Amino acid sequence: MNDAGPVSVPEPSSRPGSARAGSLFERLREDPNPVWMRELKQAARLQRTPIILAVVTGMMTLLICSVGGVASTTSEPAKVGVGIFHTFFSLAYAVVTWLGPAVAANTIAGERSGRTWEALQLTGLSPRSIARGKFLAAFTYISLYIVMLVPVGALPFLFGGVTASEVLIAFALLFVLAALSVAFGLSVSAKFASPAAAIIVTLLVALPVSLLVYGGAGVGLSYAAHDQWPGVPGGPPVWLPTAYVRADFGLPYFAFLLFLPVVATLVPAWLFYEVTVANMGAESDDRSTRLRVWFACALPALTVSALLVTWVTHAVDWVYAAGSLLWAFGCFGAFLFAGEPLAPSQRVLTRWREQRVSAFRRSFGPGILPASALLAVLVWLGLACSAGLGAINAKTGAERDAVLAFHGYGMAFFGFVVGFTAWARARANNSHTPRVLLTAALFAACVGPWIAMAVAGLITNHHDRAMLMASPSPTFAATMAQSISSSAADASLVATTGSACAAAWALIGLGLFAAAGLKVRARVALDAAARAKLQRAFDEEEAAQRAAPEPALGEV
Amino acid sequence: MSAALPAIRVRHLWHRFGTMDVLRDVSFEVGQGEIFGFIGPNGAGKTTTIRIMATLLEPLSGKVEIDGIDVALAPERVRRLIGYMPDHAGVYERITIREFLEFFAAAYAVPDRAVVGAVIELTELGKLQHRLVAELSKGMKQRLQIARILLHDPKVLVLDEPASDLDPRARIEVRDLLLELKDLGKTIFLSSHILTELSDICTSVGILERGSLVVSGPISEIAERLAARNAPPGADGKREPPTPQSPFLPGNEAGPVHNAERAQTAGGALVPGAARKRLRLRVIGDARSIAPLIEGGGGVLGVEAGLAGQLTVHYVGDERFVAEVVRHLVSRGVGIVGVEPERNELERIFLEVTRGDLQ
Ligand SMILES: Nc1ncnc2c1ncn2[C@@H]1O[C@H](COP(=O)(O)OP(=O)(O)O)[C@@H](O)[C@H]1O
Ligand SMILES: [Mg+2]
C-alpha cells in the first residue's frame, strides 16, 4: 500500500497469476497455488480431521483383521492374503469414489454459500488456478485417507499370495481414482450455489457409476483379462494390479494395460477440469474454446484406442463395439455443444481483436455452427477409420459389406444428430431447450421405429416384413449388419430399406443444418442492428452533453 | 488521465430478473475522489447495480464504465481497479487475520507482501493479527473486509451496505476509516438503506427507488436545483419532459413507461414549500411573549409558540438565518437553552424526492 497516493495499476498481463497457459516453466516458478495453501491452513486447524481419520483407519483395521481371522481358520494363508487384498481394496475403492466427489462437491459451492466466492473471483485469480487450487486441496484431503490406510493395506502382503508390487500398484491406482473422483465432484460443485445440492447431485451420480465401474471394469473385465493372460484370475475385482505384475509384456499389454487406462483416465479428467472452469465463468466469457479443444483431442484418442483394440484382437466384432462407442461419444459431444452460444459475445470479440487471435483459433471459439461442423467432421472421420479397419480385417465379402453398412448408417444418422442440434440451438433462447430436444429426438428416433414395428407385427402377423418398419431407427444398423453378414434371404431388401433411411436421415440433417445457418445469421444480424442503434443513442447523448456541459444528474 | 474522466459512469442501465424490471434506466456519475452514497429502500436494486459495477452480473442493457473501462468488455481490468465488499460478505474462519490478508495478497498477485503489514496498520488490526478470523466481532470482521479490498490498492472502493448491522461504535469507526481512505485519494461508492447511516460523510448521493434513480449528484447542487424548481414558475423553464419510452432499452418488447409516476411526484406539485425550513428554539420564559420579537423579520414565514418555552420558526434561508435569529434574541436579553435546526439537507432532499417508503 502506498500511502502517498494511488499507484498505477499494473496491466493484467504482467501478473504472474496470468502466466500464459501451457508455459509449464512459468507455472512451476509461480508460488504454490494460494487457494491450495489457504485450504491446507484451514484444514490443519480443523480438529475434526484427525478424529475422522483415526476412526476410519481403526474401523478398516478391525474389519480386515476380522476377515483375516475368520478366513485363516478355514483356508491356507496365501488364499487369506488374496481375500484380504480384494476386500481391502474394494472397500478403499468405495471410500475414495464416494468420499472424493462429496468432499470436492463441497468446495466451490461452499464458498458461494459462505459468501466468500465473489471476493475470490474478483482477485483476478484465473478460474483455472482456482480450479487447480481447489482440486489440490480436495485431493490432498483424500490422499490423507489413503496414506492412513497404507499400513492396513500392507497386511495381505504379510499373509502371502500377493506381492509387494501388486499392493503398491493398487495404492497408486487408488490415487488415480481419487483424482478422477475429486475432479468430478469439483465440476458439479462449480455449477451449484448450495453445497447440500452439490453433494446430493454428486452422490446421486457417483454411487451408481462407481458400482457400475466396479462390476463392469472390475469383475466383468477380469474374465476378459483371464482370457488374455491366464495368469490373471477371472472373477476377483481388483485384477488390474495383478495383471500389471503377471502379464507378459507385448502388444496386448501395451494396448490394454497402458494405452487404454491412460486414455480412460485422461479423457474424463480433462473434461471435468474444463467443465469446472466453464461453470465458473460468466455468460459472456469464452467457455467454448477449451471444451472444443478437449473434444478435438478426446475423439481421436478414442478412435485410436478403438482401432488399437481391433487391431490387437483381430476380431471384427470389436469393430462394431468401437463404431458404437465413437457414435455414442459423438452424441455426447452434440449434447455438450447444444449449449453453445450462437456467436461470440462482444467481450470475446474484443479480446480476440486485442490479442490478434488467428482465424484458426477463432473457429474453436463460441458459436454453434463451427461447433457442430467440427463435431460432424471428427465423428465422421472416426467412424470412417473404424469402418476401414473393419473392412480390412473382414474375412469374407459379406462381413466387409456388413461393417461398411453399419458404419454408413451410423455416419448418416450422425449427420442428422448434428443438424438437429444446430437447428434446435439456433431457434432456442437458452442452452437447456436444445439439450432437452436433442435427448427427446434421439430417444424417439431410437425407440419409436421399434414400437411401430411391434405394432405392425401384431397387426400383420408377418414378422419379417414388419421388421422393416424399424429401419428408421439408428439401432437398425445392427440388424442390417447382422442380416448382411449372415447372407440372410432378405438381406438385400433390408440393405435397401436401411440405405434409404440412412440417406433420408442425412438429407434431413443437411436441411436442418442449412436452416440453422440461416437462422443464426439472421439472429446475429438482428442483434448487431439493435446494438448499433443503441450505440448511436449513446453517442448522440454524449454529443448533446458535450454541447451543453450540464452534468447528467438523474431525474429532477 | 484527464481530470474530467469520472471514476464511475453508469449510463441507462436496465436489468430484469425474470419478468421483473429491477433496474430501469439508471444513469449517474461519480467523480474522482468523491464519497458517493447510494441510498434506497430494501429491494430498490442497489445490490444489483453494484454487482453489475463489480463485473459479477451482466446487465440487460446499458453501459457501466469504471475509470473509463467498460465492465462488460474488460472485466479483468476493472477488477484490478475496484475493491468490492459485498453485503453480508463471508470470511474464511479457521485462519488468522494475517493469513487471511496474506492469502488475498497472493491471490491479487501483489508484488510486495509488505502491503499486508501496511493495510493491517491502516485498519488498526495490528493487535488482532494473529487471532483467528472466527473470533472477531462483527465490526472487526467488517474492518477486515475493508482491509482485504485495499490490498491491491484499487482506485475505487465499492461497499455494499458497509454499516448495516453494525453497532453504533463500529459504525463510527467505519465512518472514520472511510474518511481516511478518501484522504488517500480513493473514490468511495457505498450503499445504504438507512438514510442517516453514513450520509454525513457523503459528498454526493444517488437515491434509488424501485429500480429508478430519483435524483443524483453533489448534495449542494441537488439542494440548489430543488430550490430553483420550487421558485415561482418562469424562473426555471428548463425542466425536461419525462421521456415516454427510452431508446436505450433493447428489444421490441414494450418496456415500462419510464418514470411516469416518479416525474409527477418529483415534479414538485405534491410537495409544496420545499425550500421552507423549520427551526426549533427553547427559551427561558414565556414563548408567547418572545414570538413577536421574531415575527416579521426577513425570511421568517411564521412563528409558533408552544409549551415550556418551545418556539418553532418557519423560514426560508440558510444557516446565517439561524445565527441571525439567535443573535437577535440574545441582544434582546432572551435566554436561549436550545437551538435545533430541523433536518439536515440530505434528509430534506430525501423527503422531497421520495414517496416515503424508505425506512
Ligand atoms: N438473483 C435474483 N433473482 C431474482 N430476483 C432478484 C435476484 N436478486 C435480486 N432480485 C430482486 O431484485 C430486486 C432488487 O434487489 P437488490 O438489488 O438486492 O435490492 P437492494 O440491494 O436495493 O436491497 C429485489 O426485488 C430482489 O428481490
Ligand atoms: Mg442490497
Structural description of this entry:
The complex is a heterodimer of chains A (556) and B (359). Chain A is mostly helical and 556 residues long. Chain A folds into 2 domains: 32-281, no CATH class; 282-537, no CATH class. Helix content of chain A is 78%, strand content 0%. Chain A contains 21 helices and no strands. In chain A, α6 runs antiparallel to α8 and α17 (397-427) crosses α18. The longest helix of chain A is centred in the last third of the chain and has 57 residues, at 491-547. Chain A is flat, with a radius of gyration of 28 Å. By secondary structure, chain B is of the alpha/beta class. The longest helix of chain B has 16 residues, at 168-183. Chain B starts with 7 loop residues before the first strand and ends in a 6-residue tail after the last helix. Chain B has 2 domains: 8-217, P-loop containing nucleotide triphosphate hydrolases (Rossmann fold); 245-350, Alpha-Beta Plaits (2-Layer Sandwich). Chain B is built from 11 helices and 14 strands. In chain B, the strands form 3 sheets. Chain B has a 6-stranded mixed beta sheet, with helices on both faces. Chain B is globular and about 70 Å long. In chain B, 43% of the residues are buried. In chain B, α3 (97-107) packs across α4 (114-122). At the A-B interface, α2, α5, α14 and α21 of A face β2, α2, α3, α4 and β10 of B. The complex binds adenosine-5'-diphosphate and magnesium ion (MG).
